[in-house]
Design goal:
Number of helices: 18
Strand content: 15-25%
Largest sheet: 10 strands, mixed
Number of strands: 10
Oligomer: single chain
Shape: globular
Helix content: 40-55%
Order of helices and strands: HHHHHHEHEEHEHEEEHEEHHEHHHHHH
């Protein structure tokens, strides 16, 4: 659904009124209507933690017809089921923006997949076993949150929870198939030749980074290691047709750009730090790949130039910023509680709150149009209390949303001369370096 003030107002009122009341009864949270109802419970906790991610239950109880002790008692398995159901329902409300940069608008949607770890109490080790190792936050119990985001329209398509030890590719395989004429921006951790071939068959476009140990075959030649091939090149930019991978061969277009010495040194430092943390030694192929930015795509040359492909690949960084906003601004993965039900309730409620913040940001356009998402998200969070208080009055809610849209549109659009923003690059791909 294309977002507008009436559409968003209807979505919020439906989700936090009749839907919340219905789910409260079906999950057993509210069995008999007395002091508390489902919509008040959902509104106070979702909007309260969205406004202040560090709020305690005692602080949230001030806005409910319950004592702090009674609220603590309500945070039980039924409350977990209620917020989980509300979260799943909110995900189905796929609101998208009306405006998006022309380079992204060439595709039906532009999807980015990624995973992030969220620590959990040891009580949840049976349901969400951790990764082990030396990281105490995720050693015993943690979940891997798989996120699929349409960075063009702004809708979150998937937010799936898996045990922390789940492989990234396994988490991606459980997601729904992508529609034809969409674009997938993939990281090397999701590289899978069979999946890329299937996407091509389904008329899904993709741009992916590649693993350092990849082998390639040029037309009429034998397979050779990609890192060794790049080490023999004299030119600084490559755009060639290859078959990538031996076991799961994928025909594609290989693009590579040699980076400057400063960038290479930074990449080598990050590589060595990561390998030292894992108790490994960086391979020669990994070190050699630090000298290049390498992409593989099924997009034809007649469709996109090398500069446009590189700009689109850089759009993937927006997912890193989204996850950072979830954790730093939204407090997702953090809790003042230590018990299973409290932590899970807070996790689901905060995720619903982050969906509301994303919807609010879209009032001023897509994630890559207008002001930066970080400032837009902060502005929406400032208004969540007013939105919550207006949920019982349709006209007042639309008035608050129009005011929010006005404030978002007034935010200054950032431009830079030396390091262009992603929005600038989407408008002028020739600026990419």
């Amino acid at each position: 659904m294309r977002i507008s003030v009436p559409a968003l107002a209807d979505c919020l009122q439906t989700l936090f009124s009749p839907d919340a009341d219905r789910l409260a009864h079906t999950t057993g949270l509210i069995q008999r209507q007395r002091q508390l109802n489902g919509h008040d419970f959902a509104r106070v906790l979702v909007f309260g933690w969205t406004e202040n991610p560090d709020a305690s239950l005692d602080e949230l109880a001030d806005d409910l017809p319950l004592s702090p002790q009674a609220l603590h008692q309500r945070i039980n398995n039924d409350a977990v089921a209620f917020f989980a159901a509300l979260f799943r329902l909110a995900l189905t409300r796929a609101l998208t923006a009306n405006s998006t940069p022309a380079l992204l608008a060439r595709f039906q949607a532009v999807y980015i997949d990624d995973c992030t770890y969220l620590p959990l109490p040891a009580q949840l080790a049976d349901q969400f076993p951790g990764c082990g190792g030396s990281t105490p936050q995720v050693a015993r119990a943690a979940l891997k949150l798989f996120i699929r985001w349409d960075v063009a329209g702004g809708s979150l398509v998937e937010l799936a929870m898996h045990p922390a030890r789940t492989n990234d590719r396994t988490a991606q395989a459980a997601a729904k198939p992508l529609p034809a004429n969409s674009l997938k921006l993939a990281d090397r951790g999701f590289y899978d030749g069979a999946v890329l071939s299937a996407d091509t068959q389904a008329k899904v476009w993709w741009i992916t980074r590649v693993p350092a140990n990849l082998s390639i075959r040029l037309p009429g030649q034998r397979y050779q290691a990609l890192a060794a091939f790049l080490g023999r090149q004299r030119q600084d930019v490559l755009d060639i047709d290859v078959t990538a991978g031996v076991k799961e061969p994928v025909p594609g277009r290989l693009l590579a750009w040699r980076v400057n010495p400063a960038v290479r040194r930074k990449r080598l430092a990050r590589l060595q730090k990561r390998c030292a943390k894992l108790g490994r030694v960086a391979s020669a192929a990994q070190r050699r790949m630090c000298s290049w930015t390498v992409l593989l795509t099924n997009l034809p040359r007649s469709s996109l130039s090398p500069q446009e492909v590189l700009v689109l690949a850089r759009v993937r960084w927006q997912m890193e910023l989204l996850i950072k906003r979830f954790k730093s601004q939204g407090g997702v993965g953090k809790s003042r509680g230590h018990l299973r039900d409290r932590v899970l309730c807070e996790l689901y409620a905060k995720l619903v709150g982050q969906l509301v913040v994303l919807w609010g940001q879209l009032l001023s356009g897509g994630p890559l149009s207008g002001a930066g998402c970080w400032r837009r998200a902060k502005r929406v969070r400032r208004q969540v209390r007013r939105l919550c208080e207006a949920l019982g009055n349709g006209r007042r809610l639309q008035r608050e949303l129009r005011q929010l849209r006005h404030q978002l549109r007034r935010l200054r659009v950032t431009t830079r001369r030396t390091k262009p923003t992603t929005q600038q690059l989407l408008l002028q791909p020739a600026l990419v370096t």
